[in-house]
Structures are given as structure tokens and as C-alpha cells.
Design a protein that fits this description.
One of its GO terms (biological process) is chitin catabolic process. The chain is built from 11 helices and 17 strands. The longest helix is centred in the middle third of the chain and has 25 residues.
Length: 368
């Protein structure tokens, strides 16, 4: 009996120390998402440029409330960790669930009852373990009522408890838990469940992008401005709101895009920020990967501008105007994250980079 008690106490002590390190000493997160929808080969990822990679996205089955991976994605998801560890054996991988194309109503329904939350939680842990991931990432875009925010808090608390129980019962390191959340601590008028986030998540990925886009704004704008004087729409404002709400800076990871948006200018001679536009250009929604943007600049001899006030790049040629992040924006944002004591940064998504230009700039700016 004494031997069993000692073993149990040692396990609890190990677990506590791991959680302490995870919550306060998660050294740094220099991360990016890989999107299955991009068709970018996992084997082509230069994982040496990152400390963490997110595999996106696993799905939520609305009938069973279980986390699933489509048969088409299973080969890549099940080998994701092994594949990226070939270039970086210390890379940490997380399975991301949901995403912008998933149905928020499915997550709201799942989170509304204890039994359905348990189905989600248990299946997520089982799937992460079976595929060799080191953690799980929630991307519910977005809880849209006060009740849904409350249920999100219940989900996070129960998820953490289950992860801890699974770790203690198996003697394995607990899975990491993160979530990609809105740019600020409130989703417009709805406050996030701050205490549950603080208690349950190892960190949050702050989605500091998609501020302006041709589908929802009829003027040009910096899609991922770090600063935006005179408005409440910026990465800095979002980070400050999370800190003011009670989330420690070392649990915040600043997000930035490896893509941009193209607008059609009403007047080719009015080509600065907040110029009138008539809809998206180039693609149906105006979204373009960084590599595509660089090709457009080269092929059209487009004029390039970096605005250090808002920390955003744009280019224009004729009536086509594209807002995006280039190396100047990325390096400034990474420096901001490091200088302000944030845990790190992440990008959406690796397949949109151009020869690892942005990933390399970010990694070198943060340093070792």
C-alpha cells in the first residue's frame, strides 16, 4: 500500500510540475497552421522554422458530437507528427478542430449539454493520442450568445479536467490545450469566459486579422493592422483587451496572415488606405496567398507601400489594390510580441507563404 501511495504521489508531483511549466514556462510559441484545404504537402513544411504546428482541421460530427477526420484527410493527419518531426524532431503538434468553414451552430449544440460535451472531449483526446499529436486546439468561430459563451467556459473546464485525468491515469504528459479566439476579449458585445480560459488553456491564439476585406468593407483597409489610430480595430487593441480582461501576456500568441485581400478601386488615382472600392478583385472573395500577391506585383509592376503607422503593406496597379503583410509588417509584429512579453506568434497558413520568406523573417526576428 505504501509503495502504491508513493508512486501515486510521485505521479501527482510530476503532473503538477508539468502543468506549472506548461502554464508559466511554455518557453515560446513560434507557430503556424497547416491547412488540409490548401493541398500543400505536409512533407514540404520546413518545420525547422517553428516550435509548434497546428494540423487543420478536424471536424465535429453534429450527429454524434464526436471529433472526426474525413477519410480523405486521415492519411495526412495520422502521419502529420511523424512527417514534420523528420526535419525538426522537437516540433510540437496540435490537432485543430473546427475552423472558419465549420458550422458555429454545431459547436453551440455540442457545448449545450454535459453529455454532448463529454462525447466531444473524449473523442478529441482519443483521436489526438491515436494520431500522435501533443495537443488539441479549438477553433469555434464564434459563440454568438451569452449562453454560448457560458457553455464555452463549461466545455473548456471539462476539457482540461479530462485531459488531466487521462494524463494521471496513463502516466503520460498531458495534452496541450489551446484555442483560436477573436481578436479581442469580447466578441462585439459578448464577453469571453475569461476565468475558464485562464484556468483551462495553455495559451490562446489571438486572430488579429480579417479586419478589412472586400466582402464586408467597401473601402480599402489594412487587413491585419497592428495599430489603427482612431479606431478600436487593431492587433494591439485586441492584445490589450485580453490583458485587461485578466489573461496574462505570456498566455497570448499573436496571429498574423500569410494572405491578403484584393479590392477593385473605384478610382485608380485614389489608392491609399480607405479608398472607395466596388468589390473584390482577382479572386471571388478577393483573398490571395502571399505567394500569389508577390506574383501579381512582379507580373504587373505594381507599386508597393509599407505603412509603418498601422504596420501593414499594400500594393496597387490600375484599379487593383491589395492589402497584406510583407516582411516589414511581419518582423514588426514579431518584435511587438516579444517586446510585450507575449508567448509568441502564429500564422495562418504555411501553404500561403512564398519560399518560406515570411516564416524565415518571423523566426529570425524572434531569435533563439
Amino acid at each position: 500500500m505504501a509503495a502504491k501511495l508513493v508512486s501515486f504521489l510521485l505521479l501527482i508531483t510530476f503532473h503538477f510540475l508539468f502543468r506549472l511549466q506548461s502554464s508559466t514556462g511554455q518557453n515560446v510559441v513560434r507557430a503556424a497552421y497547416w491547412s488540409a484545404g490548401s493541398e500543400f504537402p505536409v512533407s514540404d513544411i520546413d518545420s525547422s522554422l517553428f516550435t509548434h504546428l497546428f494540423c487543420a482541421f478536424a471536424d465535429l460530427d453534429p450527429q454524434t458530437n464526436q471529433v472526426t477526420v474525413s477519410s480523405a484527410n486521415q492519411p495526412r493527419f495520422s502521419t502529420f507528427t511523424d512527417t514534420v518531426q523528420q526535419k525538426n524532431p522537437s516540433i510540437v503538434t496540435l490537432l485543430s478542430i473546427g475552423g472558419g468553414n465549420s458550422r458555429a451552430s454545431d459547436f453551440a449544440s455540442m457545448a449545450s449539454q454535459a453529455t454532448t460535451r463529454k462525447s466531444f472531449i473524449d473523442s478529441s483526446i482519443n483521436l489526438a493520442r491515436s494520431y500522435g499529436f501533443h495537443g488539441l486546439d479549438l477553433d469555434w468561430e464564434y459563440p454568438s450568445t451569452a449562453t454560448e459563451m457560458t457553455n464555452l467556459g463549461l466545455l473548456l473546464n471539462e476539457w482540461r479536467a479530462s485531459v488531466d485525468d487521462e494524463s494521471a491515469s496513463t502516466g503520460t504528459s498531458p495534452l496541450l490545450l489551446s484555442a483560436a479566439l477573436f481578436r479581442s476579449s469580447d466578441y462585439y458585445t459578448l464577453d469571453y469566459p475569461i476565468q475558464a480560459i485562464e484556468n483551462s488553456l495553455d495559451w490562446i491564439n489571438v486572430m488579429a486579422y480579417d479586419f478589412y476585406g472586400p466582402r464586408w468593407s467597401n473601402v480599402t483597409g489594412p487587413p491585419a493592422a497592428l495599430y489603427n489610430p482612431g479606431t478600436q480595430v487593431s492587433g494591439d487593441q485586441g492584445i490589450r483587451s485580453w490583458i485587461q480582461a485578466g489573461i496574462p501576456s505570456n498566455k497570448l500568441v499573436l496571429g498574423f496572415p500569410f494572405y491578403g485581400y484584393a479590392w477593385r478601386l473605384v478610382d485608380a488615382n485614389n489608392h491609399g488606405f480607405f479608398a472607395p472600392t466596388s468589390g473584390p478583385a482577382i479572386s471571388q472573395d478577393g483573398d490571395l496567398g502571399y505567394g500569389q500577391i508577390k506574383d501579381f506585383i512582379s507580373q504587373n509592376s505594381a507599386t508597393e507601400v509599407y505603412n509603418s503607422t498601422v504596420v501593414s503593406n499594400y500594393c496597387y496597379s490600375g484599379t487593383t489594390w491589395i492589402g497584406f503583410d510583407d516582411t516589414q509588417s511581419i518582423t514588426t509584429k514579431v518584435s511587438y510580441a516579444k517586446d510585450n512579453g507575449l508567448l509568441g506568434y502564429f500564422a495562418w497558413h504555411v501553404g500561403a507563404d512564398d519560399g518560406w520568406t515570411l516564416s524565415q523573417a518571423a523566426s529570425e526576428t524572434w531569435g533563439s
